[in-house]
Structure formats: structure tokens, C-alpha cells
Amino acid sequence: MENNLLCFKRTPILTALSLPKIYKEGFFTESGVWTKLIIIKGKMKFAFLNLENKIIRRYSLNSKSEVELIKPLSVFKITPNSTDLQFNLEFYCSREDYFYNKYNFNYPHLEVVKATKFIEPCKTLDLGAGKGRNSLYLSSLNFNVTAIDYNAEFLHELTDISIKEQLDINVIDHDISKANIKGRYDFIFSTDVFMYLNPTRIQSIITNIKQQTHLNGYNLIVSALNATRHGRPLMPLPFTFIEGELKEYYKDWKIISYSENITASPYPYAMILAQKVSE
Question: 45, 124, 259, 267: which has the highest count of C-beta atoms within 10 A?
Fold first, then answer.
């Protein structure tokens, strides 16, 4: 880890002879990606460029040089200044962007990221984990995560990545619609899942997860909203919450945050973060 950033990629050792053309002519660092230059031996000329590929700053560097992280959206080029040059590059990003950059996963859901500013690491259930974008992110923050889904392919991929990343995620093949979660948790969440479920099972599922939440624990649900009365077309989904419905389910809990985003794309959605304050 570097400055609270995580390394998601590193180049092999590059030399004066093997230096790729892109680094000689001008390499553009992506948004949200910091670059670390590590000189093993030899010398180089390092230059920052503007968008017209003109040099704006130039440095002579060697293995003893102190080189700061190269910021996102920078353009630089490297020119060998000795035949024995050896170096590599490491690429860093925030924890939220790590699994996207390394495995091309979707980013963790924004509401899950926001919840971590409020909820400390705890026993957590990802209800409908899919490929595990949220489970991986929370596990990397030391949440004790159980991820459930019925898609065996997704769960296999999640298991493989959790092993590679040395993350302890309990992955379970389970049909959410049965509404029979047995374990108890401090934090149960579901993002973009309820809209694909049988509408006749929604009440039972929510009742079940509320029951299986510890006292002072939290539920977070984000799912599609029916906003036809605001001129939004009805999405071709098995289920959408009507306005106020999701909040009504949690009227006996403390509402930490609730919103209905009518203008969201690709579909309107409802979001609730609620705390269980009594049994």
C-alpha cells in the first residue's frame, strides 16, 4: 500500500533495450491511477509533457533519486541515459477502484461505499452478491462477509478472486426468494437485486432479513422504483417498488437515510439505510 492506495498492476523489469515505444513517446496516466517509478539501476531522462506532447519539466534520474508518485492524468516519457538501465512501473488506485482496475469488475455500489463511512467492520451478508463487487470491497475493509447468490458461475469467480486476494469471504449458493436466511448479521444489504425477484416474495424476504439482523444492526436496500406518475416509463422488470413502499417496510426501524431518485439512469430507484433499534 502506498499513501492509502493499492497496487493493482506492475510491469516486468524494463531495460534500455526493451523499453516499449509508448513510454518513449508519451504515456498518459488514467483518471484515478497513480504511477510509481522504481529505478533498479542505471540512469534515465524523465520528462512530463503537455497534451501537445511538448516537454514542460525534465529530470535526470537514477536508482538513488527520490521519485514522487506520478499523479493521474499526467503525460510522461522516459529516455534511457545509460545502457544498463533497469526499472519498472507500479500502478495504484483507491480501494474503491481496485477490483475494477485489476479484474475489470464494476465499481462497488456508491451506497455501499457511503455506508462504510457510517458502519464499522462487522458480520455482513451480501444478499444477491452477483460477481461480488460489493463483497470484495467490504472484505478488503475487514468486514466479515457472507456472499449469497444462485448463479454458480458468478460464485465460482468470486471464490477464485477472494483466494487470490487472500480475502476470507463465505460464498454460498442460495435462492434468495426462499426467504429463509438462518444466520444472524450486523449488516445485511442488497443492491439492484429485488427488481429481479418474484413480486409475491418481496414482503417475506424483507421480513426474513429484518428478523436475522442483530439489534442495532443495519439493512441497506437499493432497487428500482416505479415512477410512472412522474413521466418515467415503467421498466420491463419483474418488480419495482412504488413510492414510499420501501420506507414503509422499515417504519419500525430507525431510518438513517432514505431517498427516491426519480431522474436516475437507467431507471429510477429507491434506497434505504435503516437501523434495528428494538427486537
Answer: 124
